[in-house]
Amino acid sequence: MGVVNRTAFLHSKRMASHGELRLIGENYDPGFIGMMKEDDGYGSSDDFEGALGNDQDTADNGRPPKKKKKFHRHNPHQIHELESFFKECPHPDEKQRRELSRRLALESKQIKFWFQNRRTQMKTQLERHENVFLKQENDKLRAENDLLRQAIASAICNNCGVPAVPDEISYEPSQLMIENSRLKDELNRARALTNKFLGRHLSSSSANPSPSPSQGLNSNVEVVVRRTGFCGLNNGSISLPMGFEFGHGATMPLMNPSFAYEMPYDKSALVDVALAAMDELIKMAQMGNPLWIKGFGDGMETLNLEEYKRTFSSFIGMKPSGFTTEATRETAMVPLRGLALVDTLMDANRWAEMFPCMISRAVTIDVLSSGKGVTRDNALQLMEAEFQVLSPLVPIRQIQFIRFCKQHSDSVWAIVDVSINLSNAANALMFANCRRLPSGCVIQDMDNKYSKVTWVEHSEYDESTVHHLFRPLLSSGFGFGAQRWIATLRRQYSSLAQLMSPDIHGEDINTVGKKSMLKLAQRMAYNFSAGIGASSVNKWDKLNVGNVGEDVRVMTRKNVNDPGEPLGIVLSAATSVWMPITQQTLFGFLRNERMRNQWDILSSGRPMQAMFSVAKGPGQGNCVSILRGAAVNGSDTNMLILQETWSDACGALIVYAPVDASSIRVVMNGGDSSHVALLPSGFAILPGVQTDGPSMQPDIDENTSDGCILTVGFQILVNSVPTAKLTVESVETVNHLLTCTVEKIKAALSVTQLGSVE
C-alpha cells in the first residue's frame, strides 16, 4: 500500500512540475544553442495515437485483440512545412489545420497529433536543459552556504580580537519561511515606492506570461523565464556593486555609466536574449557558403543578407528604417592561450586597452553572472561602450549591450555581444545611430600555444550620419569590421610578447626604462584617439567659427588638475582627406624623421634624427622613438619628440608629442611616466575603398584604387590659464596650422589634385 501511495505522489508531483512550463517552450527553436536535435520521430502522428491505445487489450469473451495502427513517418517535405508553420504558430486552429491537411495530403488529426507531439517534446527537452542549470545553481548555493557558515564560525570581535560567539541561528524551515515572507513584504513596499516615483511598473511576479524571443526588449517587457542557471537573475534581485579594478599597469581612466542603476530592466529577459544571441553566433561562425561570400584573393568574408534572412529570425526587433547593414567574418591564429583572451574580453578596461583606436570608452554597468570559476563559463554582464573610427567625419557609436561568455568544451569558448534597449520603447533615442546584432568571437585553443579566433561582426547603422568619404569604407567592413578587430588583436599581442621579452631591442636604456617609455607612449596614443573622435572620456566643447571649414572639427576643453597634460585651455582640430597614394607610401613618408622637416612646424625646417627606438613588434614601422632636432649654431635643443608608429592591413598610426628632455630622462631610467605632460598630435591612415562615385585621379599613381584616407589631428595649448577666455584668433591659428600641414604633405608627395573632402 505504501508503494502505491508513493507512486501516486511522485506522479502528481511530476504532473505539477509539467504544468509550470510556460508558452516559451512552444516558441522554442529546435536548434536553440545546439541543445535540440532535428528528429523525424516527432513527425509520426500515428505513433502518438497508437500510444493512447490500451496495451492490455487481449481476447475477451472470444473477441480478437484490437489491431494496432501502422506507424506513419512523414516525408521530408511534410516535416519541413510543418516545422516552418510551427515556428510561426505553435497552436494552429481548426481552419489552419484543415489548410495544412489539404496542402500536405495528411489527415486533420495527423496534423493535430503532430503539433501535440512537437510541443510535448519541446517542453520535455527544455525541462531537461533547465534541470542542468538548476543543478549547477544548487551546487553554487551549497558552496556559498558552506563558506558563509565557516565565516560565521570563525568571526573575530573587532574590539577585543577574540573569537565572537554569535547567537544561535535557526535553520528550521518554518523560521526561514517567516524570514522569507518578511523580505518579500519589504521588496513589495520598495516596488510600490518605485512605481509611485518613476511612474512605471517593475516586474514583480513570475506568473507573467513570457513573450516570444522576437519581441526582444523593446517594450520594457516583463518577462520571467525559468532559466536560473545564472547567479542572481531572479526578478527583483539586487544588482551587484561593481568595483572597476584596473589590470596591472592599466592606463585607462575609470568611467562611470551615464545611467547605471537608474533604469529598471528585466534580467530574465536579458538571459533569454543572451542565449539566442549565442546560438546565432555559433551558427554564423560555423556556416560557410552561401551564408558567407569570400572576397577576391584573401579578401574578408561578407554576409549574404538574403541567405541570412532565410536562415535567422530577428529577436531584437525589426531593422530600423534607414539603417544600413555591415557584416563580416575573419579567422586568424593569435599567439596566446584562449583563456587569457577570454579574461581580457570580459574585463571592460582591459578590453578597451586592447583596442584603443576602436573603443574610446567602455564600462560594465552590471554583472548578472560572474560565471563558473576561472573558465568564465556562463558569465553575463551588461555593458556600454563607444566605438570609433579615427576621423571627425564618422560619428561615435554609443551602444548598450550584453556580453555573454560560454565555454563549449575544454578548449573552446564563445563570447557574444548584442545590443539592447534599457529604456522605454517610446524613447526616440533608442538605437540612435547604430545597433549591434549578435557579434563576437569563437576561441579555440591549439596545441602550439596559439588560439584560433573566428571573429564575426554584424551591425546596422544610420548611414546618413556618415560623411560620403567614409561610406564605402564602413559598408565594406574596414571601419568596424572583423578584419580590423583581428588585425588589432594580433598586433597588440605581438607588442605584449615583445614587452614581456627579457631582451627588448634598444640602445642606452635598460629594460625597466623601455617598459616605462612604452607606457607613456600608450597614454599618448590613447589621448590622441580620444581627441580625434570627440569621446565622452574628455569633456570637449565643439566650436563653430566662420573661417573654419565644415569638414574640420574644432573643439576645446580646460585642464585644471590633470598632471598628465599641461594646465590651461586645450584646442583640438582635426580633419580627414583623401590621398591618392598607397597607405604604405604615405606611412613611410610621415614616419621618416629625415623627411619630417618637410611638413612639421616643430622641426623649424631643420632635419631631425632618432636618438633611439624601442620595437613593439615585427616590422620596421612598429616602434616607439625619441626624436631630436639638429643643433643650430652649436647649441643643443632641450625639446625632444616622443613618437609612436604602427601599421597593419587595416590602417596605420603616427602619433607624436613634444616632451621635455629632463622628463624623458626620468622615464628612461624607469621613473613614473604618469606625470609627464603630453599633448599629442598625429595622423591616422585608413585604406581606401574603390567606389563608383567621383574618382580622384592621382599624379603619382595610375591606379585609382591605390588610395587611402588621411586624418590629421592637432592638440595645442592656447592658454596656460584655465580660466582664460578662448579667442577667435587662437582658433584660426590652429586651423591654419592644420591646413598648412596638409598642403605641405601634398607638396612633398607631388600630389597636385588631392581629393579633399567636399
Q: Could you walk me through the main structural features you see in this protein, from its secondary elements to its overall organization?
A:
By secondary structure, this protein is an alpha+beta fold. Among the domains are: 78-129, Orthogonal Bundle (Arc Repressor Mutant, subunit A), CATH 1.10.10.60; 267-422 and 432-500, Alpha-D-Glucose-1,6-Bisphosphate, Chain A, domain 4 (2-Layer Sandwich); 511-691 and 705-749, Alpha-D-Glucose-1,6-Bisphosphate, Chain A, domain 4, CATH 3.30.530.20. 33% of the residues lie in helices and 21% in strands. The chain contains 16 helices and 19 strands. It has helices at 2-19, 45-51, 76-88, 94-104, 108-153, 173-198, 267-286, 305-311, 338-345, 348-354, 471-476, 482-500, 511-532, 583-591, 661-668, 728-748, and strands spanning 292-294, 301-303, 323-334, 359-369, 379-387, 397-409, 412-419, 434-436, 439-445, 451-462, 541-543, 552-559, 568-579, 608-615, 623-629, 639-648, 651-660, 681-687, 708-719. Strands 1, 2, 3, 4, 5, 6, 7, 8, 9 and 10 form a ten-stranded antiparallel beta sheet that branches. Strand 14 and strand 15 (623-629) form a beta hairpin. Helix 2 (45-51) packs across helix 5 (108-153) and helix 4 (94-104) crosses helix 5. The chain is globular, with a radius of gyration of 32 Å. The chain starts with a helix and ends in a 10-residue tail after the last helix. Mean pLDDT is 74; it is low at 1-60, 198-262, 424-429, 692-704 and 752-758.
